[in-house]
From TrEMBL:
GO cellular component: plasma membrane
Keyword Transmembrane in annotation: yes
Transmembrane segments: 34-56, 210-232, 262-287, 299-325, 337-357, 387-408, 440-461, 473-491, 511-539, 560-581, 593-618, 681-699
InterPro entries (alphabetical): Rce1/LyrA-like_dom (IPR003675)
UniProt GO BP: CAAX-box protein maturation
Residue intervals of the CAAX prenyl protease 2/Lysostaphin resistance protein A-like domain: 562-654
Protein name (Swiss-Prot/TrEMBL): ABC-2 family transporter protein
GO MF terms held by the record: ABC-type transporter activity; endopeptidase activity
Length: 711
């Protein structure tokens, strides 16, 4: 019978329904799942609602509270009231009608002007916002034009004290100018005030409410926590109960079993999201804070539907991420240890959206988790736009499918279904036999260690100021070789790994070298154009101070021999980075992932490393470095070796360093200047031609990718 016959399709659907019902039944009857699903939102949202209400009420009270002025006597207070009123009338002649309303003041008179009740202590103890000493006052105490000496006592760092002092000073200055003009008229002379000030007020740009910035993170994190326990129980839990092997032995595709577990996790996550929305709605209406949280329209049914759609997309994404992580765990305890970093990573974007200027646009819509948090915030604030919202929604679904595909590769494999419990000591136990390549876990472990090691060591190196720049460059090159070559080789020898296959040291076809050299010479102009494009899109962090630092560094390099710069910053980093990223890391990840996934993963790690290389101050380097990493990875796959990408990398670095060294000579051609916006079109055309010819050359002189099975 044909495998695609209707009866077979019906059987497959019945099997899928049976598996889904089985997983849902086992999950929903678990007491801990029900507690997470029902009890947590019921307990948490009333507490959060009361906290938000307290914060909102406290903010309103602070904004509407009168400013407190303290003076030594009631006579001085009466004089000041009259002076402020007269000065305000004078200022109205110069101010626009859009001026903010006058401030309200409360006048305080200490019982004792000495000791703890002095004006200074009243300001210091926050009993008053501004202290005012007025001397001397005679019989004309109620006359604002009487001659006096005034001292303002202000509390440092207090916005309220600063506001009060500015308000009082502006009206007293107006009185002074009016008094001088009055004196000139009495003496039949004309006085032209050289500087006349006027002030107008404009409405500030609306910024997201601080509560609204925090609320999406709380809502989304409370939703995804509902799927944490089911994801662990349905994967690592079944391994501990010795039921995973039984499932794997069934004559059913393991992907079908994974989909059933995925549906169960999504169902519990969505039910948790629905409970969170319900608890949030009830809390908002009971505490009467829906207007504060959701604007004038409040919490409408349409807004609830939009929020549930966002929660659904986030649940689909996070459920796949949870299954991908827990599918690689061998025990319940190990899965919990894996999920702690995942939850910390999930919390980090919540603080990103609180940064000034963070908005959902065509760029941030592609950033996982950040896009959903920004979309939820915009929905709360009523400012969501259709195009970025649709992009964020679709990309989140795409990322979910990618994570699910990665989970399918790990789910139910012999390597995770049986064997050890994943002790930390296994990373350091020496195998009894020789191994061809490192595992995915080993290579990832070394990568995770390299990032903080390089960050700390390079930072310490920068603090050494007694050595010359040449010595510092050579020390940096030595550090790169130590971390990216010596450390992986030492680990490979301890783990009895074959060095040739681990680091992919193979001799490529000799005809490939002209194409590799051409690519090395041709890539830098378009990498530079990517940087310019990022700057035009507002993603560049090179401000004026950083540009000056770059200029200063380039001037310092003029005193260093060119060969030292090329060797320290071009040759050694190029060789060492390829030795690790397209060698050790590539072979380890290739053992568990496809070619495309390995190329993309190592390229991204390569790009993130260059942010660490810059001390974390140049996040825009991720994009051009990752693009370069993609090209290097492709060349590595085509040649099945690290030698060709190493040469390409060295030529690329050396070309850029040479251009930087001779930037003054190239400035006459408008090339190589720091402030330059674009390279000449002829250079870009020549670069594009070189890249195309180089790719065709490398592709035609190497074996087909489909033939490279040993890679």
């Amino acid at each position: 019978m044909n495998s695609d016959s209707p009866s077979d399709k019906t059987t497959a659907r019945q099997q899928m329904v049976a598996f889904i019902r089985k997983e849902l039944r086992e999950t929903l009857r678990d007491r801990r799942t029900i507690i997470t699903l029902l009890a947590m939102p019921i307990l948490l949202y009333p507490l959060l609602g009361m906290c938000f209400r307290f914060m909102a009420v406290n903010a309103n009270q602070t904004a509407s509270a009168p400013l407190r002025l303290t003076l030594n006597s009631e006579t001085e207070a009466l004089w000041l009231q009259q002076a402020l009123k007269t000065g305000g009338t004078i200022l109205e002649q110069f101010q626009d009608s859009t001026e903010a309303p006058d401030l309200e003041f409360e006048y305080l008179i200490p019982q004792d002007n000495d000791g703890e009740h002095s004006l200074e202590n009243s300001i210091s103890n926050t009993q008053a916002d501004l202290g005012i000493k007025i001397q001397p006052l005679g019989e004309e105490g109620a006359n604002p034009y009487s001659k006096v000496s005034i001292q303002l006592i202000q509390r440092s760092g207090s916005p309220a004290s600063e506001t009060a002092a500015s308000y009082v000073a502006s009206r007293l200055n107006a009185l002074n100018i009016a008094r001088i003009e009055h004196w000139s008229l009495e003496n039949n002379s004309t006085l032209d005030i050289p500087i006349r000030q006027s002030k107008s007020f404009v409405a500030p740009v609306e910024t997201p409410n601080a509560i609204l910035q925090l609320f999406p993170l709380v809502l989304l994190m409370m939703t995804v926590t509902g799927g944490v326990y089911p994801a662990i129980d349905l994967t690592a839990g079944e391994r501990e109960r010795d039921t995973m092997e039984t499932l794997m032995a069934l004559p059913v595709p393991k992907f079908r079993i994974l989909i059933a577990k995925y549906v169960a996790v999504i169902t519990v996550t969505l039910l948790t999201g629905l409970m969170n929305l319900t608890a949030m709605t009830i809390t908002a209406y009971v505490l009467q804070i829906e207007g504060t949280l959701f604007g004038a329209e409040g919490l409408t049914f349409l807004l609830l539907l939009k929020l549930f759609a966002v929660l659904a997309a986030f649940a689909v994404f996070f459920s796949a991420a949870l299954l991908m992580v827990t599918s690689s765990a061998r025990s319940f305890k190990e899965a919990q240890a894996y999920l702690i970093p995942l939850l910390l990573v999930a919390i980090a974007p919540g603080f990103v959206i609180m940064l000034p200027g963070a908005e959902l646009n065509q760029m941030t819509a592609f950033v996982p988790m950040v896009n959903m948090l920004l979309l939820a915030r915009d929905l709360f604030d009523g400012q969501a736009r259709w195009l970025p919202s649709v992009i964020a929604f679709l990309t989140t679904l795409l990322y979910s499918f990618s994570l699910l595909a990665a989970a399918a590769r790990m789910f139910g494999t012999d390597a995770v279904s049986t064997g050890s419990r994943g002790q930390w000591a296994e990373l350091f136990i020496r195998p009894d036999h020789i191994v061809d390549k490192p595992t995915f876990g080993n290579s990832t472990f070394i990568l995770a260690m390299l990032f903080p090691f390089y960050f700390v060591c390079s930072g310490l190196l920068q603090r050494v100021s007694e050595v010359s720049m040449s010595q510092r460059l050579l020390a940096s090159a030595g550090l790169t070789a130590l971390l990216f070559v010596v450390l992986p080789i030492a680990f490979a020898c301890w783990q009895r790994l074959k060095l040739k296959s681990t680091f992919r040291i193979n001799r490529p076809n000799g005809l490939v070298w002209p194409g590799v050299i051409l690519l090395g010479l041709s890539t830098w102009p378009w990498i530079f154009e990517v940087v310019v494009l990022l700057e035009a899109m507002g993603l560049q962090t090179l401000d004026a101070s950083k540009i000056e630092n770059v200029k200063s560094l380039l001037e310092t390099w003029q005193q260093i021999p060119l060969w030292v710069i090329i060797v320290a910053l071009g040759v050694i980093p190029g060789l060492c980075e390829e030795f690790f990223f397209r060698g050790f890391l590539f072979s380890g990840w290739r053992s568990s992932a496809g070619r495309v996934a390995t190329i993309c993963g190592t390229a991204l790690a390569f790009g993130l490393f260059h942010v660490v290389l810059a001390g974390g101050i140049a996040p825009e380097r991720v994009v051009p470095s990752t693009m370069m990493g993609l090209l290097l990875g492709w060349v590595s796959v085509r040649t099945n070796s690290i030698l060709a990408p190493a040469l390409l990398h060295v030529i690329h670095n050396s070309t850029l360093l040479t251009l930087a060294r001779f930037r003054e000579e190239l400035a006459g051609w408008n090339i190589g200047t720091v402030e330059q916006s674009h390279l000449p079109i002829t250079w870009l055309a020549a670069s594009a031609t070189g890249i195309i010819i180089g790719i065709i050359w490398v592709g035609s002189t190497t074996r087909s990718i489909t033939e490279i099975s040993s890679d």
